[in-house]
Design goal:
Layout lengths: L26 E2 L11 H6 L2 H5 L10 H11 L6 E4 L1 H13 L4 E4 L5 H9 L3 E4 L18 E5 L11 H9 L6 E4 L20 E6 L12 E5 L1 H12 L8 H12 L1 H24 L3 E2 L6 E5 L5 H10 L2 E2 L1 E2 L8 E5 L3 H13 L1
Parallel strand pairs: 1-11, 3-4, 3-5, 5-6, 6-7
Antiparallel strand pairs: 2-8, 7-8, 9-10, 10-13, 12-13
């Protein structure tokens, strides 16, 4: 670190992304990417003609993509904000509404804590229940920004929309953010509640169920007043936040519903099969509504299992955090990948 670094930021602990290996070949089940390629429609759309247009700036209003997302969600384009990954959307939400502090689960997406530290926001971390579920009562009252990943990460467990609605309804003086990065794999989306609650922002991503993690694209569905706020921040930061190719890829991806449904159904099927195979081997496996499982071995500690599987060419995600260090998060890959992983576990 240089001596010029801001004193406030010098103690910042940045987010640690999952390993992205170079050189050695791994079966990569650690960062919740889709095992399937993007839709053929995406590949056709991102063609040489589109590449030739890279000499021009992208559309700062993301008009065609926002209209496509609006058609998909049943809202108007004025209710859609598009970001460079859902991480940028979340960052802007923290920046816009976190001045009275931020309330979020103590075991959840690691970026929530980082954003609070980055923007100097007071943190209100709420412990999960003993069964790893989020307690809605912890998110009612006060004027802090409420942020809940649903399904939660790394547990994969989800609240019902009735519980989400109660949190939103009983916090009329603060914004509630529902981070639905994994919602397409078994949870019920809160998008339908937006029309009734001007304080609700629902965030989704193209990284998981639409196979575009490398394109960096996310969006928020919210009242026009909230999307106006986010656009004020965007245009004060980077008006061209989405590149031309990503705009094209995103539109093609969200319009190909048949491929989307096919991929997500297969991931759900393989997740259930893999979960049962782990349970048969004595693992404790939380009920997942995501494209991963959170599991604990009865015989091998979480970190040891992670390290020994890595030696065998498998990457899973381990968190050295209180209360969850015995568990590992395992992304659902192709059925053959999961079968190979089970064989590796049996060999240990």
């Amino acid at each position: 670190m240089s001596r010029f670094m801001s004193s406030r930021l010098s103690t910042l602990k940045p987010y640690t992304p999952g390993e992205q290996p170079r050189g050695r070949e791994y079966i990569k089940l650690n960062t919740n990417e889709s095992p399937f390629p993007p839709s053929e429609n995406v590949i056709k759309a991102v063609n040489s003609a589109a590449v030739s247009e890279l000499r021009l700036y992208s559309d700062p209003e993301c008009t065609e993509l926002r209209e496509a997302i609006a058609r998909y969600t049943g809202y108007q384009s004025k209710n859609i904000f598009v970001g460079n990954g859902s991480d940028e959307v979340l960052s802007f939400l923290f920046m816009a509404y976190g001045e009275n502090g931020v309330t979020y689960p103590s075991v959840s997406y690691g970026f929530y804590k980082v954003y609070c530290d980055l923007y100097g926001l007071e943190k209100h971390e709420k412990a999960l229940r003993e069964d790893f579920t989020v307690c809605p009562d912890d998110y009612i009252g006060g004027k802090s920004l409420k942020v809940i990943a649903n399904p939660n990460a790394p547990t994969g467990m989800a609240l019902g929309t009735d519980e989400i609605e109660r949190i939103v309804r009983e916090n009329p003086d603060s914004v509630v953010v529902i981070d639905e990065a994994y919602v397409d794999f078994g949870a019920e989306s809160a998008v339908g509640l937006v029309k009734n609650y001007p304080n609700l922002a629902v965030v989704q991503t193209f990284s998981k169920s639409r196979s575009l993690a490398g394109a960096r694209l996310g969006f928020c569905v919210a009242s026009e007043a909230l999307t106006d706020d986010l656009n004020r921040i965007k245009y004060s930061n980077n008006p061209y936040n989405i590149n031309r190719l990503t705009l094209i890829a995103g539109k093609a991806a969200i319009e190909d519903r048949e491929y989307f449904e096919k991929c997500r159904r297969e991931i759900i099927r393989v997740r259930e099969l893999f979960s049962q195979q782990l349970i048969e081997r004595g693992f404790a496996v939380l009920k997942s509504s995501a494209n991963f499982v959170f599991a604990k071995s009865p015989e091998i500690g979480g970190k040891e299992l992670y390290l020994r599987l890595k030696e065998k060419g498998f990457l899973i995600r381990h968190f050295d955090s209180d209360g969850i260090s015995d568990y590992n998060r395992i992304t659902i890959g192709l059925e053959d990948d999961m079968r190979s992983l089970i064989s590796a576990i049996d060999s240990l």
